Amino acid sequence: MAANQSSPGVVIQERDLTTITTLSTANVGVIAAPFEQGPVEEIIDIANERQLADVFGKPNDNNYEYWYTAAQFLSYGGVLKTVRVTSTNLKNAVDTGTAPLIKNFQDYETNYENANNNWTWASKTPGSKGNSIGIFMTDAGADQIAVLPAPSSGNEHEFVADEAVTAASGAAGKVYKYSIVLTVDTIVGDFVPGVSTTISIGGSNEAVTVLSWDPANKKLEIGLPSGGVTGIIADGQTITQGTNTCDINATIERRLYVALNKDSIAFAAADAVADTNSTSVAITSVRDEYDEREYLPGVKWVNVAPRPETSKFASEAGGHRDEMHIVVIDIDGKITGTTGALLERFIGVSKGSDAKTSVGETNYYVNVVKARSEYIYWGEHETSVFNATATAADGNWGLSSARQFNLLRSAAGSTDYPAGRTTLGSKNNATFYYRLASGADYAASGGVYTVSNTDVATAYELLEDPESQTIDFILTGPSGSTDAEALAKITSLVNIVEERRDCMLFVSPRRGNVIGLSNANTITNNIISFFDTLPSSSYVVFDSGYKYIYDKYNDVYRYIPCNGDVAGLCLQTTEVAEPWFSPAGFQRGIVRNAIKLAYTPNKTQRDRLYGARVNPIVSFPGQGVVLFGDKTAQGFASAFDRINVRRLFLTIERVISGAAKSQLFEQNDAAQRSLFLNIVEPYMREVQGRRGVTDFLIKCDDDNNPPEAVDRGEFYAEIFVKPTRTINYITLTFTATRTGVAFQEVAN
């Protein structure tokens, strides 16, 4: 056709007539299961057993049948699309408030990220594993600890939190905290931080508050009430908290914690400061508060990272003290196996919603945790704070960086530290501890997690669209705890494969029909009765097996269903031969990792099983555990009652339908039909050459594409196939003849 040009020239045009077909590789399995961790109702591609354990946790006594079905399939190669099933019992651990179920990242973004939550932090994975998470957070906090001498007479110093404090040197700030640290002895009981107590000063009982208690070092920190106390605290005085008592022993240190004003110089020794009663006192010495700040007993923040202060971004925007550090700890070792193990840390993150790093990435702590944390979700900003300016709201977190941000200052006392770690219970300090709790697993009954068939079906339905999810094998895992439950579960899965018509479902018998029974005939009857209730479908494969394996994660031996292995054998057949070869027999049907079978049928029992659409799995001495049948679950005789034929058609249908898609919106004429034939016929010849079919015919011409069909925009192609059949029955006849008989005579 001539190009549309207004003046002489050359136009180059291209037509692509190189469209070809490619052989389909069937290697994608699917399982939905109640794993102990991981996102819920989200499809995760798993490539090996190690990744399965990392993402969804290790097997436990309640889910090992599901877990090892997945693991055994992966041992044959391929990819497993894995979905964690939901349940009304599942909950994410939180630091406070009502535990929610945050299914996955999308659920968090949609329903929780911008909601008014009643928790500050939540575990990223639903389940009890989240209860092991501890979160420690700190920011700039107090700048200095100014050590003050004892009053020479009168009463104790009275420095009220948040009041201004200045010195003639020009140093200025606010009282972050004032406390008295006592060394004690004659200790009875265990003091509780955050709780009021009394101290006898000169014979008068005065009310004070325990801020922290370190029994190992016999250090008791107290805070004075508003209005101060009468008299001066001295050696030998007795402290009482209910039935807890101790005596002051010599060392008394009065600490004034100061948060410096923006651009102020630091306080120095000998600087005079005035308390709320305008009584002047000269500072004895000053220390950097951050050098002494701990997040675990004996574990200092300074060993994690330098003091969080003001980021470059906030400084340039006119902001102040936006930085903070967050560390996530495995408090009791149930996640990593090591108590106190560091799970992750976020250093120098910002309170400013617009904050950026030096390379332009977001540094807002909410966004950083959202993008990088594998263990926690953020829910709300902390509200127990030290107000940096006169108007508290001006320093709120989550606003732009052009402000002086409020600082962390705990107010809850004893709730800010883990049980048995009372040195973290210091009220009014800058280390916040959040121990997540209330995370809940699936309900368990009879040694298995109980998940409803509705929840299981919902999980599998995430993969029911063949255009968005390419899958080849659906694994059932355990069928169910009762026949009725199993029937409902498997029927829903049969509906999926019948709707998709591009994959196969693999089903093992119900555990109660096989395990714990010693009579093989009873087991045979149970299996046949069970599978007789299930629908007929050429897209489904039944097996007879439960195999015995070693569970290395729990150091026990367990029986697990074999449907993961049968699907794995189909996958392996594709890799070592062709998808249209049978996965059964001694060439390609050896089941891996089997110590023994719970039930190995004899010839008579195999005959009964095979007639009932069940593929026997048999242990042959010296030859291993073998899949000894290649039937589909189709209830009537046809070519599609064999696995290899069904997989042949699945393969060629997927390839040819892909070629057909390239014909959409092209010209509907003889030339296009010829092009389609030129694509498909070479592929079918290759399938024939590779023993998939014995003969084929492709009809795509004017006969099956009449003018009226063309006018409707329709395109028809008919593919006739003679599939190659497998050998299922062998008869060997041995004939003895007399010496003088010619073989030609008897062979005929």
Which short descriptors sum up this protein?
alpha+beta, seven-stranded mixed beta sheet, 748 residues, 21% helix, six-stranded antiparallel β-barrel, 4 domains, Rossmann fold
Question: What's the arrangement of secondary structure elements?
Answer:
Blueprint: E1 28-33, E2 44-46, H1 49-56, H2 64-74, E3 79-84, H3 105-111, E4 121-123, E5 133-139, E6 144-148, E7 164-166, E8 172-188, E9 196-201, E10 204-214, E11 219-223, E12 238-241, E13 244-260, E14 272-274, E15 280-282, E16 285-288, E17 294-296, E18 299-300, H4 312-316, E19 323-330, E20 341-350, H5 365-372, E21 376-378, E22 385-386, E23 407-408, E24 431-435, E25 444-445, E26 448-449, H6 453-461, E27 473-475, H7 483-500, E28 504-507, H8 520-532, E29 540-543, E30 546-551, E31 556-561, H9 563-576, H10 585-588, E32 596-597, H11 603-611, E33 614-615, E34 617-620, E35 624-627, H12 643-661, H13 670-689, E36 693-699, H14 707-711, E37 718-723, H15 743-747
Helix pairs in contact: 2-9, 6-7, 12-13
Give the strand line-up of the largest sheet: 2-3-1-27-28-29-33
3D shape = elongated
Number of strands: 37
Using only CA atoms, what is the Rg?
37 Å
Distance between the termini: 69 Å
Instruction: Count every helix, treating DSSP H or I runs of 4 or more residues as helices.
Output: 15
Q: Describe the sheet with the most strands.
A: 7 strands, mixed
In total, how many domains does the architecture comprise?
4
Helix content: 10-25%
| Low-pLDDT stretches | 413-425
**CATH architecture assignment of the largest domain:** 3-Layer(aba) Sandwich
Structural class: alpha+beta
Mean pLDDT: 91
CATH topology heading of the largest domain = Rossmann fold
CATH class label of the largest domain: Alpha Beta
Beta-strand share of residues: 25-35%
